[in-house]
Structures are given as C-alpha cells and as structure tokens.
Amino acid sequence: MRERVCTFGPEEALVGVLTEPDPAKVLPGAPTVVLANVGLNHHVGPYRLWVELARQLAARGFSTLRFDLSGLGDSRPRRAGGPDEFQRAREETRAALDYLEQKKGQRRFVLIGLCSGVDSVHAVTVEDPRVVGAAFIDGYTYRTAGYHLRFQFRYLSPRRWSRYLRKRKLPTQLREAGEADEVYTREYPEQARLMEDYGRLLERGVNLCFVFSGGMGLSYNYERQFFEMFSPLKLENRVTYAFYPHADHLFSVPDDRAELLRKLIAWAVGSVPPRALTG
Fold it and tell me: Which residues form the Serine aminopeptidase S33 domain (predicted)?
C-alpha cells in the first residue's frame, strides 16, 4: 500500500490523500473510491473511519482518494466558486474526479458520503456518468406511518423514563444547554424528486448502497422504513441496504464501525465487473 498527499482543483486549493494498493494487488476494473468531509471532520473521517476504509480497500486492490473540501482540514478557502456551500461541495467533488481521470487515467468512480456528505455525493452521482456506485450513510429519510407508530412506543420504555428523570435533576443551566436548538440543518429534496433520481440511477446501472444508524431515531426507526419510503421503486434486491439500530450516527463504537466497514467493502467489491473478479 502507498499513501501520498495530492493537491488539485481551483487554485490547487484542495488537499487529499491518495491511497493505492501495491502494484501486484491492483484489482483490474475496480473503480476509484472518493471520500470527502463528514461535517467539520477533516479527511480522516470521524473516528478515522475514512482512513480505515481506504486502507482496507487498498488491501482488496482499490485506490481511494479522501480529501478536504475548501476551508476544511488542510484545504484552503477558495476565493471564487459556487454561491453556497452545497454548490461548492459539488464542484469540488467533480474536481476530484477530474484530477483522478487526468493524472491517474481513472474513468470509473464510487462515491461514499455520510450525513451532510450525502448531499454532494447524491448530486454528483446523478449528474456525472463516470460514477458507477454511490453509498449513502444516514442520508435522506422520510417519516412513514410505520415510523410514527413506533415513535409513540418510545414512551413505554423504562430506560427512556429513567434518562428523563435523571436529566430533570441536573442544574437548570446544564439542562437548558442540552435542550438548545441545533445550529445545523439540512434541506432534503422532495420525496418524489428523489424517487425519480433513484429510478434513473438504477436504469443507468449505478450500484447503490444505503446505510442507516440508530442515530437517526428522530426520523428513521425500523428495518423496512427505507423500502416503504420508496415503495413504488420496489428496491428490495435492487440495492445494498443495512440498518444498524444500536449504532450511533458516527459509528463511534469500534464493533459498529467494523461492521460498517465490512458492509462497505463487500459492496465496493460488488461494483467491480464480474470478469475482472474472475480474472
């Protein structure tokens, strides 16, 4: 395995780490995996998730670029670019693909995003035919009848009531701090529009993976919710899917993170043309 720092994009402002397998282990036909920031985490990912993923993928013959968007981590702020953060993230993700195509001759890519990273991954996957696979971790969710029914059951949990009573014993200032409004919000696309996007991607043959954690409990809370959100598409057996109800949003527990990595690596291997795998 070899890792090296690279710069690319407008003004050469973007900084990333390219992880490549040993030449003898390169998997012919394998797409290059591209990873960007999760929130304000830099390119190592939360709890070094992206580092572990890149190195394990290298052991399977994949190259991976994990990079910082402008103004985050090691990448400098840009003087010019899209008018908002989302548009800049899309532009910079495409710049990463352009760099890999021009410098490494790569023309097939897999994108993986977690939480806010899903926004640019989804947009670029829809727009760019070079993307042959995309994984969305804790991405877009829509509440269903099944969600609302299960959400009410939470009031029957003794553990929840115990947490509530302990919280009421905290000093007022600490309690109010924990109840403060979140400062970060995301705008989801219209559900019908998202369903159209997924339908077009499946027609294009894009290998899709959807993963949800228990950290999405305020909008996602049972195994089949994903399939019911997009029931007209009949997505069972058409996409890779996993729900980890006991994992938190950033997969901070090592066992949960290891399980996520196993799922992503198995899915990535599935994006390689069968002829390449059989030699």
Answer: 33-130
String of DSSP letters for 131-169: EEEEEEES------HHHHHHHHHGGG-HHHHHHHHHHHT
Domains in the chain and their CATH numbers?
Answer: 2-276 (3.40.50.1820)
| Summary count for the chain: helices (H), strands (E) | 10, 8
**Does this model's pTM top 0.85?**
yes
pLDDT in tens, 226-241: 999 999 999 999 999 9
H/E stretch holding 269: helix 254-269
Tokens of 161: 């009531």
Sorted by sequence, the CB contacts under 8 Å of residue 50 that are 6+ apart come out as: 35, 38, 43, 44, 66
Please tell me the number of Cα atoms within 13 Å of 218 on its side-chain side.
1
208 bridge partner residues: 134
What distance in Å separates the CA atoms of residue 202 and residue 129, rounded to the nearest whole number? Answer: 12
Outline where DSSP puts E strands in the chain.
Answer: 2-8, 14-20, 32-35, 64-67, 109-114, 131-137, 207-213, 240-244
